[in-house]
Amino acid sequence: MTSTIELGEIVGGGPAMMNLAELLATRLLVQGNSGSGKSHLLRRLLEQTGNLVQQAIIDPEGDFVSLAEAYSHLVIDAAEHTEMALQAAGERMRVHRASVVLNLEGLDADLQMKRAAAFLGGMFDVPRSHWYPVLVVVDEAQLFAPAAAGEVSDEARRASLGAMTNLMCRGRKRGLAGVIATQRLAKLAKNVAAEASNFLMGRTFLDIDMARAADLLGMERRQAEAFRDLQRGTFVALGPALCRRPVTIRIGTVETESRSAGPVLEPFRPPTEQVADLILAPLPEAEVMQRAKRPVAPPPPDLLTQLATHGASLAETDTSEEEDSVDPRERRQQMEAVLRDVLAEDDGGFRPPASLYQDFLVRCRIAGFGRDAMDMKSFRRALASARSGISVEAAESAEWQEAEAVASTLPEDMQGVFLYLARAALEQAVCPSDTTIAKVYGTHSTGRARRILGWLEEQNVIVLRLDGAGRRRAAIIGLGWETLPGDPGL
């Protein structure tokens, strides 16, 4: 089976070919203003590869649902499913090797980000035996991996950005090949865009976007003006799956059509009726609400029925007392053990809290704790304590409760780092290194770890000291605990 597909033609002569096997290993970034032909390009790519590789499409506007009839894609309407159901769907589509269109149309930005993150998280977390190649196309990627915080909640932005980062940075080993398309490079998170090795740059007009596109293609800044002159459906291509030098290509035709095609210009015909009567017509009077009839109370039961009902209520009371007899402390310790098992996985320390929460709820249901074992706010507090590494017994001590009281005054993402330092100081262990702090926070950047420590010191909750050998100590203000000296660079 060939792995080469034809995207269109090179401007100046010759077909524009793409090596699918190389694309799966190196990922693709598509950029262009609205109307430049991005959706047409993605549709051409999906049609050409529809019978060659499994596909997953994150579709915020419902543009690609028409692929279902021609290529047997399963269309999942995200508005009809919960995040947990979508995470399970992401896992199952890889297990059963089905191509899927996740239709996010009609949802607000916050829900789009959360549900796309849940679906991508499910695809990412399947067992190794199901790591088959999947082409993951994300349209309007700047919505799911924004460069800066917007009007959406911080929880949604973190979950979505974490899922997109996993897709582009760590997805290759799991068979996930990201193809992301965006209208604005300046609005797309740089760590997501930087992982792509293939580029298709379309028409754009803003200087900042032209400059970033030129930098990605290795062009000089004075050549960036050429992006303004590109025709619709024409892109500058570069990458190992496309070509070794920038060339201009024109995308070929497609077989399917989008549901949301742009408006068609037709001759304007003004209405012949009286416009004022049509537009300024009085509003209809509100209809009188019909009150529902009150149900007639049934006659009181006889004495034997009352006795039987009373006996049943007593039996229910006995059952509830048996359920209440479960020791709350034991139950809490069991749930904390489940949480520690989730964190003990290979990538548990780097997964966003929303993804960990979904995994935690599933395991709690398996353990018999019910669907609502812990709400998200309580989970975040428990997660911060679990990240600290404190033992279950020590977590019940009065000293540790004081440390958690101090942590509660900090932002949620900082509590885990503070408690980790507090645990090391309480046990008089060596001061953790920058690499360890980064892992506790959920990042690979030691520079961010140093900034976090500096921020905690500015908040007057810790004091850092270096001795003559360059070893670092961390003292917890107000509690009187201090770590042993440790090498920050280990």
TrEMBL record:
Keyword Ubl conjugation: no
Keywords: ATP-binding, Nucleotide-binding
InterPro entries, alphabetized: ATPase_Atu1862_pred (IPR014588), HerA-like (IPR008571), HerA_central (IPR002789), P-loop_NTPase (IPR027417)
Domain Helicase HerA central: 5-77
Protein name: ATP-binding protein
Source taxon at top rank: Bacteria
Molecular function, one GO term: ATP binding
Region annotation Disordered: where it falls in the sequence: 313-332
A Pfam family recorded for this sequence: DUF87
